[in-house]
Amino acid sequence: MRLRTLGRTGLAVSEIGFGCGPTAALMIQGSAEQRREAVACALDLGINYFDTAPGYANTVSETHLGLTLRELNARPFIATKVALSFDQLDDIGAAVERSVEQSLQRLQVDQITLIQLHNRIAVQRAAQGELGNAAVLSLEDVVGVNGVAAAFERLRMRGLVRFSGCSAFGGDMPMVGQVVEAGRFDVLTVHYSVLNRTAWSAGADPAVRDYARIGAHANSRQMGIVALRVLEGGTLTADAAANGVGEIRVRFALRNVDVVEGALRFVLSNPQIAVTLVGFSNIEQIKQACTYASRGPLPQELLHAIASY
Q1: Cα–Cα distance between 64 and 51 in angstroms, integer?
Q2: Do residues 47 and 17 make contact, with C-beta atoms less than 8 angstroms apart?
Q3: pLDDT confidence of residue 184
Q4: pLDDT tens digit string along 18-42?
Q5: Strand, helix or coil at 136?
Q6: pLDDT tens digits, one per residue of 251-295
Q7: Quick check: helix, strand or coil at residue 21?
Q8: What is the spatial distance between Cα 92 and Cα 83, in angstroms, rounded to a whole number?
Q9: 274, 143, 265: which is closest to 193 by C-alpha?
C-alpha cells in the first residue's frame, strides 16, 4: 500500500482509506468475527486510515470500530466527525466538545487523529440541508469567534484531537471556499469520482453537482484532501446506465479495465488526493481494492478519453 502525505498535517496515510459508513456497511452490520478479520486484513495490507462518524447507524460504526481495534491492539489513524443539529447552534462550542468526548469513549481512544465537521456549509443556517440530516451552518458558525473551528482548536489544545477538517460534500461552494481561505482546518473531504470530476475540472453536465474546483483550491492552501463517493454510492457498480455510467463503461471496456478498478484508479490518479475512501462489505473487496491500487494510476490515454466526454 502506497502512502501519501495528508497535506500540512504531515501524516503518512494509506492511499486507500477504510470507510466505515452505511453504504457497504461491514463495520455496521458485520459480526464481531467478520469485523475483526476484515480490519486485520486491511491493516496487514497497509491500510492505516479508518473513517467513521457518530451518525453512521446512530453511533454503531464508532462503537464497533473501537471494539475491533481494541481486540486487535491496533492504533491506526482514526477520522471521525461532528454533526450539529439546529437546536445545538446556540452553544456550538459545548455541543462540539460533548460530541468529541462521546466519540472518544465509543472509540476507546485517548485522542482522535482527525476530527471533521460533518455539517453542510451555506450562506445561512437551515434546520436541514439537501443532503444529510444535520443542520446547515453559516460561515460564522464555522469560522467565527464562537464557531466550530474555535471549538476544534480548544480540543486540540486539550490533546483530545490532533488535526481538524471539514467537508465540501453538498455544500455551497463560495462559502466552502471562504472556509478554505480562512485556513482554520487541516483537511477537506471532497466528492470526486469518474462521474463527477468538478472538484478539479470544469463541469459540463448540468445534472452533476458543480464543486467549482474546490479540491484544487484546498490543495493550493496545503490542505490534505480526502475523496469520498468514488463509486458514487454503488451507482458505478449497478446495472443501470444513468448519469454517464454507460459511457464510462464503454471507455473502460475498450481497454479491458473493470469499471470498479477503473473508477478507483481514476481517483488514485490524482496526486493531490491523499486518501481515497472505500466502503467494504467483505474481505475480498478489501483485497481487490488493494490489488487495484497496486497497479497505480490509469494510463494517460485513458485519462484523456475520460476527460473528453
Answers
A1: 12
A2: yes
A3: 97
A4: 999 998 889 999 999 999 999 999 9
A5: strand
A6: 787 788 888 999 999 999 999 999 999 999 999 999 999 999 999
A7: coil
A8: 11
A9: 265
Could you tell me whether strands 12-14 and 3-5 are parallel, antiparallel, or unpaired per DSSP bridges? antiparallel
Give the number of C-alpha atoms closer than 13 A to the C-alpha of residue 203, restricted to the C-beta side.
Answer: 18
In whole angstroms, what is the distance from residue 119 CA to residue 166 CA? 8
Within 8 A by CB and 6+ apart from 238, the residues are 245
Map residue 232 onto helix, strand or coil. Answer: helix
- The set of cell numbers assigned to 60 is 454503531
Q: pTM of whole model > 0.90?
A: yes
Query: Are the beta carbons of 259 and 270 closer than 8 angstroms?
Result: no
Q: Which helix (H) or strand (E) holds 150?
A: helix 148-157
Q: Which three cell numbers stand for residue 107?
A: 472509540
**Backbone phi and psi for residue 300, each to the nearest 5 degrees, phi listed first:** -60, -35
- 156 grid coordinates: 486540540
CA–CA–CA angle 34, 37, 42 (5° rounding): 120
DSSP characters over 251-269:
HHHTTT--HHHHHHHHHHT
Give 79-128 as a DSSP string: EEEE---GGGGGGHHHHHHHHHHHHHHHHT-S-EEEEEE-SEE-SS-BSS
- Res. 193 pLDDT band, cuts 50 70 90: very high
